[in-house]
Amino acid sequence: MGIATNLEQVRKQIEDVNSQYQRELGAVRLLAVSKTKPIADIITAYESGQRLFGENYVQEAIDKCAALSHLEHIEWHFIGPIQSNKSRLVAENLDWVHTLDREKIAIRLSEQRPESLAPLNVCIQVNISGEETKSGVHLEELQALVDLVISLPNLQLRGLMAIPAPQSSEDEQIRVYQPLLQAYKSLQAQLPNIDTLSIGMSGDMEAAIASGSTMVRIGTAIFGSR
Fold first, then answer.
1. The whole model's pTM is what?
2. Any stretches that span the bilayer, and where are they (predicted)?
């Protein structure tokens, strides 16, 4: 099957799960993870109505942004780790960052964001499974980073992101997501612009939507295996 057909199937699956959990139509946005995929594939997805694309590697993301800058309303989301020496490239070229988890990077992104651009949309990455090898702040550290981000002039805090450890069942996945959902709701009560809970990939999309996801990150089901 082609990319257009795959996209149609993924969108239907999202709306089916959305409906199952009695959430509003369109409550969950689809972020097409296009890392390592050729520009031709992104164009095919764009022509099928997809506008949000996620990239993990800075130089690849920059090259694609430049090559496709003529496409209207395309949105580039950075979903990989950010090294200090690459923060300027991200700040100057991307629309969103989902993986903010350090004060140093937050400050650099704000300082390096050109004044001619809108503030950079950011999600704070939370380590909800307590894995030492995973990026992300722990929930007890979240408020301190929130306070810093909202004080920075060229960042716009939009919400939270997480990549939990795989679980043995959907019920277990939902259970793991509950503390994150509570943190997200608490953040929404504090700040008017919080509207993004970036959770859910191919393996746990249903559990994520059941747990309040507003943006799922799907790659293989759209573009095929790398």
1. 0.96
2. none
Q: What's the pLDDT at 74?
A: 98
Q: What's the rounded Cα separation, in Å, for the pair 59 and 203?
A: 27
Instruction: Say yes or no: domain 3-223 is CATH 3.20.20.10.
Output: yes
pLDDT at residue 226 in the model: 64
Q: Does residue 218 contact residue 202 with C-beta atoms inside 8 Å?
A: yes
Q: How far apart are CA 74 and CA 210, in angstroms?
A: 28
Residue 56: count of CB within 10 angstroms of its CB: 16
Mean pLDDT by 10 residues, the chain (226 residues): 95 96 94 97 98 98 97 98 97 98 98 98 93 85 98 98 92 95 97 97 94 97 88
Report domain extents, the chain.
3-223
